[in-house]
Amino acid sequence: MEWIKLLNPNRFGQTGNSRQSSARSFFEQDYDRIIFSHPFRRLQDKTQVVPLPEEDFVHTRLTHSLEVSSVGRSLGKKVGEVIIEKYPELKDAGYSSFDFAAIVAAASLSHDIGNPPFGHSGEDAISAFFEKSNVGQFIKTQVSDVEWKDLTTFEGNAQGFRLLNRPDNQGIKLTLSTLAAFTKYPRASLINQRDKSRKSQKKYGFFQSEKAVFKELAEAVGLLPLSESEPIWSRHPLTFLVEAADDICYHVIDLEDGCRLGWVSFEQARDLLAEILGENYMPEKLEKTKGKNEKIGYLRALAINTLIEQCVDIFKENESEILSGEFDTALMDLVPSKKVLRDIIEVSIRKIYRSKLVLETEAVGHVVLEGLLTSFLEAAIAQKGSEDSGKKDLTVFRLLPETYQELITETASLYEISMICIDYVSGMTDRYAITLYRKLKGISLPG
């Protein structure tokens, strides 16, 4: 791969590779487009890990995404300074370290934009619905194997790529470089040659419906094809920084949230974060900070900065192998702090992710998403000529946004109908999903 091609400022439908002479670069515009988009705003009422408690503030998908973007910008800027110095032709072409920062910041900002309500359990709920429900089993007989794989292993990353490239989201329409950096898993859902040693193949990054779109993207920015017969590519190099920004934040900030809620003791959180700092940990300075929350916040800031520096060092050491496609490991798996990071995850799983409140939310998510998908898919399928079509189905169908109704009416594919219904349900906030479910089930009346 070549940096000059990887930093492609064009958007789909544009040709040439001219730089924009304005106050904002194309990549900086990406960030602003995401900030002002409806899908991004909805993240404010989507669970990150811990449901919103009454007694204290915890992170939502929105605040998590903003923090990941902030860390991503720092990573991109620091790496960009090194790359610009190493490849003078980039500077001659008008690129700077700020372009690297803007791409990583924008891709990081949108990294969770495709996640459904109720955290990662929402992904499991959608997959389980198609695998186990009567509606899902009927759809199975009407779709291809790879389409069925999309539905039964629903992936928020692929949903995000679909969302960013949907025709009715032209207000977002990101640059090709930001779209490529956004895609952590540049492969389809069903492949026969999965290499488990490659982090980029752990999950998948685009549905069958966007396969041609991603192929065009990969060719435009110069991603390396890893198979002659299957849709698998190497990662965009800056994707490693987007992934690192996310990893840094959820390791450190989930621990901070757990401490603030009293699920993890202050002493345990302090010691874990201090271990990341190593020789730079100064307990005497910490004691000058008043309050446990302020102390943990202080350590969190230092820990994040330490991990940023460590990830930048790993990227610099492996830059040549990253460009050749040989390197395919999460940066955080190689940093000096990797052992304590594993300890943090173990504590988070035991004391946070398996807490009663989190488990209750996951259970609610399964019930609510199953109910919504059943209602809307049955109604949508009925409009395609089902003999069971009735007034109830038509009424529920009319609850869908008009653009979705038109798409369903115009398509004959059960796969695409399923994807449209998933678009609608996965785009809901936690609160709206619960409210609509209660109304559809007659548990509550419209206000």
Automatic annotation (TrEMBL):
Keywords noted in UniProt: Hydrolase
Domain of life assignment: Bacteria
Annotated HD/PDEase domain residues: 57-260
Lineage: Bacteria, Pseudomonadati, Bacteroidota, Cytophagia, Cytophagales
Species: Marivirga aurantiaca
PANTHER family linked: DEOXYGUANOSINETRIPHOSPHATE TRIPHOSPHOHYDROLASE, DEOXYNUCLEOSIDE TRIPHOSPHATE TRIPHOSPHOHYDROLASE
GO molecular function, one term: dGTPase activity
Gene Ontology biological process terms from the UniProt entry: dGTP catabolic process
Protein name: Deoxyguanosinetriphosphate triphosphohydrolase
